[in-house]
Specification:
Number of strands of chain A: 2
Radius of gyration of chain A: 23 Å
Strand order of the largest sheet of chain A: 1-2
Largest sheet of chain A: 2 strands, parallel
Shape of chain A: globular
Strand content of chain A: under 5%
Oligomer: homotrimer
Distance between the termini of chain A: 40 Å
Number of helices of chain A: 17
Order of helices and strands of chain A: HEHHHEHHHHHHHHHHHHH
Helix content of chain A: 55-70%
Largest interface: A-C, 88 and 87 residues
Structural class of chain A: mainly alpha
Chain lengths: 462, 462, 462
């Protein structure tokens, strides 16, 4: 194993320094919010009995939060275990960078979204938002999967989380955009950021690790655990931070129908693009999820089941076609080595979602939404509210997101190129053994065989 | 690979046509219900402040819905991965037919359960009901697992969902039956429908694929993921659409105790029926779940923990005995090739659940239920309500369900027998390679192939 | 296979006798509580409309219950599948003893915590408490994993559940301790009980099974399923039975931050203690969870995110160091063979959690908690309430727990030493084949071996 990838000092040092900084910043800046603070929540509880415990935001948001949490840690983590010799890293580094990012995101989002008397207030909503931001980092991780050290990934997360918070602030607070499920803020941003990073980190000799850059039978089944959890809980993801009541309910349902339709499109086109008419696990694992991405903006609107299903069908279709035809071109022509094909799962469907969101916003009306209009479009309380210009702002939001992601990815990519992070050599990409004690490897022969042999021998002789 | 199983045109065509039909029908027929529509939910929100967001059905039902959703996609999907070479198809086809069925079920159930001014109203309750109907199709899938093409499965789903909706309508609306957890509508129906289909599709030469019709070590562990999720979330399944408050709470708890008791019975009888006293994974994976099936009807009633545990114990016992003694007879004498043994997990326990439900209904009284009586038995509001006749209607419901399932399965079986669906030949049943790109096969030196070959060779020569 | 381990009579007999006893006791002693009983819940529903269905404890507790349930059955079950040839037993015996323990715990906890007119009242809160008690048994299972028969494990569960209930009663009811997440009652108790049992069952010749007492690549991935679920749902675990409103909300959030911080510490120290700077799956699978254990007592208090992160960081650190340096010493010097290293995951972090809880209690004040004080510290309603003495009682609670666990484990260990339970011989520890029908073994040729060899050959020669 090359010395240059030994992480004994680099990784502990980085982790400990980051966590100490986080702890100090949390100690000075973070406070319980109204619904988590014993004093604030119970203020006036004796005088005024009209507030009840079930009104605590915990009961509205926590089940959704847990579903989102599962998507972040199991969904993303296992989805990436499809590689034959990179399961430990997929789940493990996903775990590490998510655990870091959610803490860092709490601070960054707290900063830009407004301090309360100099303090960041936290509760279940900030936890969901932190998980969302983390999702964006994990999307980018998919592009560089197998080609980066955990130190690099943590450095990437530092920058990406920061930029995510800034972009989110511009979209939601400056441009007043709607993006509850993050078609733009999470998926488009995470995808194009990651694609730019992997472009800068281009490895002309990645072929040397080609034999490991594919799945085996069991690793594909592990990956399906990730896929199915993402698929099932996407309705919770898109609805997790919408307004209470009808918007949350509607968003979950729209997402449910979009995903169902997307799944049929995915199976259809996966078989169609194969000369033998065979289904490809890569498509099923990924493209079937594009329907969730593509209703991330419009899901809370009156998109209807009908609209959701059309969007889902389109998303599944472009995603499969992207895997089949676009990914090879991106690699050969644009030198973008996108391990998980995030462009097909998050990039294009994210842009589609942004466009659908802009159109659906532009079509909003008091007639359709009634008194519920301002619960979806916050600025509709204002009499001068104009859906067309709202649609325009949504489109601008997409442009801003793309610019921020590409620029941010470019800068971050060059920072990650410094030869100090223990990045794997071209010959040892997609290989757990570089950063993990892989069972039995120490003795120089395969554990699986050794393991089987003695027990076998014994059995036969008994 | 035989040309006859090439799905390149058949599968895409069917998927696309079905989805287009679904989209058109959703566009013309489906509307948001009161709790998902922005206008309806927020109507009068200014005049009348007594309705609160937490009263939206979303907060009562969505956590249960997500648990049901996990059972449908992870539970059923992974439970069937026990076959050594059929994991992709188990999870994948489960995914495909579930995604189709839930859309189709929304329409069929909407039709028969009553349109609102010509429209089907959808919300979280319709989503749960659609998932329930899908569960029934997946039960039938268990009987024909490994012996059908995805095209056949989709065709089966079209018919089964339709009949399910009709049967459900007869039971719940015509006969006024109770069946919140679906002992009859879901389990009995799905099981006997599937058993009849597999009977009609009988393959005398299935022995040619015998060496693949069994598990390997890791596939049994994947299957346990399915088992455990089904087991854990069954309380949510049975309680998902009961009335709010005590019925939902009680149903979850009754199911919890039934399953716990069932598990002890399963381990006991699994060891007892083995000459070496060894536990059999097939029993643990399946029979331990029978307790959930068997309280699907009576779970919402005042069955008590005591009653639930007796029912669970019985269910586990008959299920293990069924796997050990009945399944081989069904295959040899009745020519019913039941891959997953759904007769033991869903068939007999479903019938048991129907009987238990009839008895428990017949024993209901104002004395035990107090003012809660009509919240379990809707027609108890009527003064002439008579528990004995209620019990009778429950028994009739079982008979109707069996008749509908067997007849429906018979007809559907013959439709599925047409030689146009790309069904696998007898020599290639239980084999993913027929319909899936199995990793690396193209290059001819795939790890999996190497891996598979010797074991294959050896088996053939042994 | 040695005759002495044949369970054909022993296991069925024990399971059936236990379940019959349980059913009889449930029949005579257990009743629905106010929120699950049709009559009680709907009492006066006509006269008084102020009680609403959403006030049923089901809606406050059931989502948390399901998360806890997943931790017990998937979390613990899969975490222990890391052993190469013990996956069936890990998930399967976990399943069996959990299903038994939760029933037995309902009775034992019901007895000691107070009968209502001679009856035990059950509802979702008793279900959570029963699952908690079960967790304690599963922790002890981790110490003896691979070295005990299922009969032994059930016998252990009988005693441990009973003692757990007594200890819990002393802590919560006599000493008035706070321990919502069970740092003491669950983790410290389960760990030291299990360590003492494994000490008594010491096997000097366990080396004979050494080659099976380790992981393989895929078994480590299965174990990560357990780890990640435990990690994600620990916030629900610690908050499941706190008071409604701010305490539940705050506990979940404190646990979330503690775990995130713990994860960074775990990765840091795992790399640091490895000469090659490589991460060790054992640490990641286990130590990353110590942060949840360590805020089990103080989580509901005003610990702040800052405090939680410090505690989590410490917990991860001592846990990794424990695995690396202490476990080998415990085995060689104290003859404690701790298969899963529960001392590092539950023992030390549990004690840390108890200490943190005592300190945080002692620092509680009306100033910080306002009117919420008595919602965390029940006896704070009393004017004479003194935080320092409260802290003292917390410390006494830890001492009582340690004493009960060690003494109970000692006695139980000797009971389990009787040669009547079909315990595995030293040569066949960590081996599923002893108690399970393992696929393919009948034909005398191990699938696993065939599969591994050729791919290995190619790798070596390439």
């Amino acid at each position: 194993m090359p010395e240059s990838t030994n992480l004994r000092l680099r990784l502990p040092l980085l982790c400990i320094i980051l966590e100490v900084i986080l702890i100090i910043l949390f100690g000075t800046l973070v406070e319980y919010n109204h619904d988590t603070d014993a004093k604030l929540w119970n203020k006036g509880i004796n005088q005024n009995a009209t507030r009840h415990d079930y009104e605590n935001e915990f009961y509205y948001r926590y089940p959704s939060f847990q579903d989102v949490h599962v998507m972040i840690f199991v969904g993303f983590g296992f989805l990436m275990t499809f590689l034959q010799r990179y399961g430990f890293s997929s789940v493990g580094f996903n775990f590490l960078i998510a655990a870091f990012s959610l803490q860092w995101a709490t601070l960054m989002q707290g900063f830009v979204h407004g301090l309360h008397h100099g303090k960041i207030h936290v509760g279940v909503t900030s936890m969901i938002n932190a998980d969302f931001c983390t999702g964006s980092v994990l999307i980018s991780f998919g592009a560089v999967l197998g080609k980066t050290s955990p130190v690099q990934l943590l450095v990437m997360a530092i920058f990406e989380v920061t930029l995510f918070a800034v972009n989110e602030f511009i979209l939601l607070s400056v441009l007043g955009a709607n993006d509850a499920g993050g078609s733009m803020t999470i998926h488009t941003f995470g995808a194009y950021f990651g694609l730019m990073v992997t472009r800068v980190l281009y490895r002309p000799n990645l072929d040397k690790s080609k034999h490991r850059n594919s799945s085996v039978y069991h690793s594909d089944l592990f990956a399906m655990i990730g896929t199915i959890y993402l698929w099932m809980f996407w309705p919770s993801f898109n609805s997790a931070i919408t307004n209470y009541g009808d918007p949350q309910h509607r968003t979950a349902m729209n997402t449910y129908y979009s995903l169902a339709s997307c799944t049929l499109a995915t199976f259809a086109f996966s078989a169609l693009v194969s000369p033998e008419g065979k289904l490809d696990m890569v498509h099923i694992q990924n493209a079937a999820l594009a329907g969730g991405v593509a209703v991330g903006t419009a899901g809370e609107m009156m998109l209807t089941a009908f609209g959701s299903m059309i969007v889902g069908f389109l998303a599944g279709t472009i995603s499969v076609l992207g895997y089949k035809y676009l990914t090879p071109i991106l690699e050969s022509k644009l030198k973008i080595q996108d391990t998980c094909g995030i462009h097909n799962l998050h990039g294009m469907p994210g842009v589609l979602g942004a466009v659908v969101g802009a159109i659906t916003s532009a079509m909003a009306s008091k007639e359709v939404y009634g008194n519920g209009l301002h619960r979806v479009f916050a600025d509709a309380k204002d009499d001068k509210w104009d859906p067309q210009s709202r649609g325009g702002f949504q489109a601008v939001s997409l442009a801003v997101t793309l610019a921020m992601a590409l620029l941010g990815g470019l800068v971050t990519g060059f920072i990650l190129k410094l030869p100090i992070y223990g990045s794997p050599p071209d010959t040892h990409c997609f290989e757990d053994g570089l950063y993990w004690e892989v069972p039995g490897e120490e003795e120089g022969h395969n554990e699986l065989k050794e393991v089987a042999s003695p027990s076998e021998t014994e059995k036969l002789s008994s």
